[in-house]
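Fig. S4 source data, part A: sequence.
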Amino acid sequence: IDISKAFDTLDHEILLNKFYKDGIQNSLFDWLHAFLKNRKQFVQIGGSESSE
């Protein structure tokens, strides 16, 4: 089952660029960048997992 359309998506690079342009260029930016980089999600129900 493809449930990707059920959730809003946000391009992390666009978000990070917006923060950077708005002046968030300190340790908070560094933390957000590290937190969002290569982040993946999946759903697990019982013993079954969705693809990333």
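Fig. S4 source data, part B ends here. Strands lie at 44-45, 48-49.
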